[in-house]
Write a structure and sequence with these properties.
This protein is of the alpha+beta class. It is 37% helix and 24% strand. It has a 4-stranded antiparallel β-sheet with strand order 14-13-15-16, with helices on one face. A 4-stranded antiparallel β-sheet has the order 19-18-26-27, with no helix packed on it. A 4-stranded antiparallel β-sheet has the order 22-21-23-24, with helices on one face. α1 (2-29) packs across α16, α13 (510-526) packs across α14 (558-565) and α15 (590-617) crosses α17 (643-661).
């Protein structure tokens, strides 16, 4: 709660600074200021010189005095005039809704252009050039305050992630793009590698890893991001031109990389360990360590050796796992003189491609030559909407709407297709007596994502129960993103079939299937054969000849064999359990901090303008924008990283507020600026009817955007 109040206060201060710019400029220009307000709606408290602090607004009392002062001559009128002479024209107020603010000047009201005044100190009687300064002053104050905040941040130092590659997801542009100068550098494998240090992004030296994320997200669709990277053991910097693709998770353009991790495990501050949430997180961590073969490993320990070899970066563990051929690895962890050793068994890597749904939606899809498990509920928290509608963790979907034994892509597509409507599903649920089929009625949310509130996974690790192979896949390993039909369509013709044996070997899950397929085709693959045949033993789903077992010969083509044998191994120890690698980003000297602060102000300005351009181009969507609720939520998370990060967020929000306010849109400062330019050129103001129409359009536009972004913020916050 304290963090939230801190963020709200900070947001209020940014608005205060903006309005202070208008206020000071108006006073300089000789314009009568009637109100200086932080927030919208009715006043909570107000202060006026001559009346002091009071609850609500003092406007009513001032209006009453004005009425008496204009009345008939007498003692009452003279008393009113005397009282008014002691009062300031300006009321300072704090309103109910803290997200906003305004300066009310005599003869100038954004929502009522007809509220003009003939008084000599009114807005209308001020020269146009002075009014242009008054309108621009709020934006100028925000930019100046942002620059000051950035200078403070870079003087104190901002702890952030270095511009270094930590994770490269298989099949993404970062994994499959070959360096432009690969041949000259003696590199024969495509893609960025864990440990690569980024020297420049589009010719500019990055400050942190966030610059890479921003460069890809703000890039034009189809335009490459140019990277120069330094790689250990390579004699020259490598140059990559990588075209970002749209993330199926976020909808933003991305390269497919993550930041670098240290070899030190995640840890928790002492004060949080005894909270219910802290104890639950530590218990989850302990169970994970036991499950993967590392009992006794505790949060905060450091991984020091892999198979007896000392390591310094997590990338070294990932590379050792990838080249392990599935053999167990010996790990050594140390902390304060305590040593724990354990063994992990690498997990077989599956193919990652893009499934194309009937609706045209494209989603990531794990499979082996098209073989994929059935969607299951990995986790449904007791308080989630999914649990309240009848789902429990471990449920396997036998039917979702009209789709039998759906894969994760097919199941989620069917759920989204029925958002806002009742959807009947059948799930296989474990019970004390075995398992039973339960029918549940779900109602997906009305949002675009059609969420229900559970974490979905497939049964790849649990069994060999198969979904129907997807009809069309997009190759994520091919830069041309070619469409292809998976090989599984030639052997799996019913959803819900179960693989029992592959090439005579019994299998228990899809990872076993992958290994059995590799073993059964190894001789043909190494001999360069164009095809290979594998015998599969399958059990038909119940209802199809009562669960009969059938044997089928599966012909695999050369390109399919190459895809199968290119698969490697991944670590059962998630990178997320390690701490991110961080460094202190600082200007070094006062001049360096000032230069960095001004540079960052300019960069954020350009990024904000680019965001609007990308909205029209479709690479950034409305749901990616953050309203007050989203900013507050992000702010509370950032507040946990310390004061410096909160100041950094304040600077970014301040720049964004300046940019948005100066866009040529109705009601905001940019729109008023355009009207003043028009008045200066024309010699008289725009017609009141035109100003009223524009103000109405502006109110509707800003109101609609506010409602949409707030709705998306709440949906994102509560998974609605």
């Amino acid at each position: 709660m304290f963090d939230l109040l801190l963020v709200i206060f900070g947001f209020g201060m940014i608005i205060f600074v903006h309005e202070l710019g208008h206020f000071l400029a108006a006073r300089w220009a000789g314009i009568r200021v009637l109100a200086f307000a932080v927030g919208f709606g009715p006043a909570v408290v107000s202060w006026r010189k001559g009346m002091g602090m009071q609850r609500g607004s003092s406007e009513g009392e001032v209006e009453a005095l004005l009425t008496r002062a204009r009345g008939r001559p007498g003692e009452s009128r003279e008393a009113a005039r005397s009282a008014l002479s002691q009062l300031s024209h300006t009321e300072y107020r704090l309103n109910v809704l803290p997200f906003g603010g305004y300066v009310k000047m005599l003869g100038q009201e954004d929502l009522d252009p007809s509220a003009v005044s003939a008084e000599k100190d009114s807005y209308q009687n001020c020269p146009v050039w002075k009014r242009l300064i008054v309108i621009s002053a709020g934006v100028a104050m925000n930019l100046v305050s942002a620059a000051v905040l950035f200078v403070v941040v870079f003087t104190m130092g901002l702890e952030t992630e270095p511009a270094k590659i930590g994770i490269v997801r298989a099949g993404t542009p970062a994994a499959v793009t070959m360096a432009v100068n690969a041949h000259a550098a003696g590199v024969d494998a495509p893609g960025l590698k864990a440990g690569d240090e980024i020297l420049t992004i589009n010719g500019r030296k990055p400050n942190s890893f966030n610059d890479l994320i921003l460069a890809s997200a703000m890039g034009k669709r189809g335009r490459a991001v140019t990277l120069r990277v330094e790689r250990s053991g390579v004699p020259m910097p490598l140059v990559f031109q990588i075209v970002p693709t749209e993330s199926r998770m976020t909808g933003l353009l991305e390269l497919g990389v993550g930041p670098a991790f240290t070899t030190q495990l995640w840890s928790m501050p002492e004060e949080k360990r005894e909270t219910p949430q802290g104890r639950a997180q530590i218990e989850d961590f302990t169970r994970l360590m036991q499950r993967i073969g590392l009992p006794g490993v505790e949060p905060g320990m450091r991984l020091t050796h892999v198979n007896g070899e000392e390591i310094e970066q997590l990338a070294e563990l990932l590379e050792a796992v990838r080249e392990s051929e599935g053999a167990p690895l010996q790990l050594r962890f140390e902390s304060g003189g305590r040593v724990v050793q354990g063994e992990i068994t690498p997990i077989a890597e599956l193919e990652l491609d893009i499934a194309v749904m009937p609706s045209g939606e494209q989603v990531p899809h794990d499979h082996v030559l098209g073989l994929a498990g059935v969607m299951t509920v990995a986790r449904a928290d007791p308080k989630s909407r999914a649990a309240k509608q009848g789902l429990v963790s471990g449920d396997i979907f036998e039917r979702v709407g009209n789709v039998e034994f759906p894969s994760v892509p097919a199941g989620m597509a069917e759920i989204r297709a029925n958002r806002g409507r009742a959807l009947r599903v059948a799930v296989a649920r474990r019970t004390g007596q075995g398992s039973s089929t339960e029918t549940v009625q779900l109602t997906p949310s009305v949002s675009r994502k059609g969420q229900i509130g559970f974490v979905a996974q497939d049964t790849n690790l649990l069994s060999t129960l198969l979904s129907m192979p997807e009809r069309t896949l997009i190759s994520a390993a091919d830069e041309t993103e070619r469409l292809f039909e998976p090989a599984a369509l030639r052997v799996i013709d019913h959803p819900g079939m179960t693989i029992l044996r592959v090439g005579g070997l019994s299998v228990e899950n899809l990872l076993d299937v992958r290994e059995a397929l590799v073993a059964a085709t190894l001789d043909d693959f190494e001999a360069g054969a164009e095809t290979a045949h594998v015998e599969l033993e399958l059990r038909l789903p119940f209802g199809e000849r009562g669960g009969d077992v059938v044997t089928r010969s599966w012909e695999l083509k050369r390109d399919e064999l190459e895809r199968l044998h290119a698969l490697r191994w991944v670590s059962p120890l998630p990178a997320g359990v390690f701490q991110l690698e961080r460094f202190m980003l600082t200007g070094g000297t006062p001049i360096g901090s000032l230069t960095m602060g001004l540079s960052e102000t300019r960069r954020v300005m350009l990024s904000t303008y680019t965001t609007f351009a990308r909205l029209f181009q479709g690479t950034v969507k409305v749901e990616h924008l953050k309203g007050p609720v989203g900013i507050a939520h992000i702010g509370t998370m950032i507040a946990e990283r310390g004061w410096v990060w909160l100041l950094f967020l304040g600077a970014i929000v301040s720049v964004n507020l300046a940019v948005i306010n100066f866009l040529p849109l109705p009601i905001v400062d940019g729109g008023q600026f355009i009207f003043l330019l028009f008045e200066g050129i024309r010699g008289k103001p725009a017609p009141i009817a035109l100003q009223n129409a524009v103000a109405l359009v502006g109110m509707v536009l800003i109101g609609a955007v506010f409602i949409i972004v707030t709705f998306n913020d709440i949906v994102g916050l509560f998974g609605g």
